[in-house]
Design goal:
With 426 residues, the chain is an alpha+beta fold. It is built from six helices and 20 strands.
Amino acid sequence: MKLKVGSKKALVFIVLFGLILGVMVGAVLINMKKAAADKNYMDLQKQKLDVENRINSGDTNIVNNNELYDEKDNEQIEDEPNRPIKESEDLVVVPTILDEIKNDSAYCPTFQIVWNELSDYFCGGKPVEMLNGTNPLIDNLNERTFEKTDLSDDYYYVKVGKQVLSVKKEIEDGIKDKFNETSDILDMFEWVDDSGENFDIDAYEAYVFYSMLKREFTFNEPFDVIDKNGTFNDFTNVKYFGINSDSDNKLRNQVNVLFYEDYDNHSVLLNTKQGDEVILLKTSDDSFKNFDEVYKYLENKTNKFDGEKEFTEDDTLKVPNIKFDVLKEYNELIGKTFNSDDGKSREISEALQTIRFEIDNEGGKIKSEAIIAVKTSAIIAPEEKRHFNYNDTFYLMLREKGKDKPYFMVKVDNMNLFQENAEKMD
């Protein structure tokens, strides 16, 4: 069919109008999407700012409320679930400050606490004497180098009871109410159902001794992130926080110098909002056999130091981020038997401890559990720039303010155990 000139013009106009209308509608839709995205972004930024303000004000419930943010894409992400926890051949967990430490070792008194509970319950607080031979671990535990009274009550939870489901539920409810926490180890045990009418709880002779220590702390002001690709011993790609020449002076106010001799021998204390003290110690002395010797060395050096104890404008601080999760099964105790005060023979059937710890420029947290299961047995300063750089082997301790003993100690040597991205240098 042949169109007239007027009809052709009308058709061209309609086509052009359609194209223009399509472009306009597309632009409107794009602007609507952009506006929605901008609103979502602003809402997220507002939420993130609110979280940051709450952190700075000392709100310790942030993590429990899942208000964590991925800075990369500004999307809200859920709190990290409990990370897998397993035994490590390289990171040694010691139950007391008297046990021998290796290159990388960690201590938390939760296992000492449950041992003390066992001693009090079955032996009237006396040393637990094994019928089938002792060992250094048992001897050290019987020294009771740490007691519950060395900590404030809000640091720990303890329960002694029968190995039955009702006690397990009581422990789960207890740590949920006190710490908003769940257990990493309770499900590793077999628990007897005691809900039946015919179950005789008094006649059941399997016991558990359980403890949890949980603590979160934040620095008054977040330290600066000063290196994202540093070195530690022979490792690279190590992240550090601390203080350098460009740092705000208010960061220096939360650091106390315990002692300083030279680049390789020094110690500082980092204060926190909650009153926990983070102690860092670096020393060229590698003769220490246990954490007890380490802490006595620190106390001796601190007491004798008469140099500048303020962290001055010329001083620098460099601390690596640390994060680890480790489980320890004390096989040396399994099968060990002893007589309780009632004349019955008892056997240790399980003995476990876990430690989860992390620290970065904003603060840190520690969670440790311990459990012992027992059953009835038929078997027998100079005037110079000071650099507090913890960039090779060092010790880190946590101590409650006003208390004499640390409730956590770690020796750091192999950085790959504490930062998963650390790479060994060729």
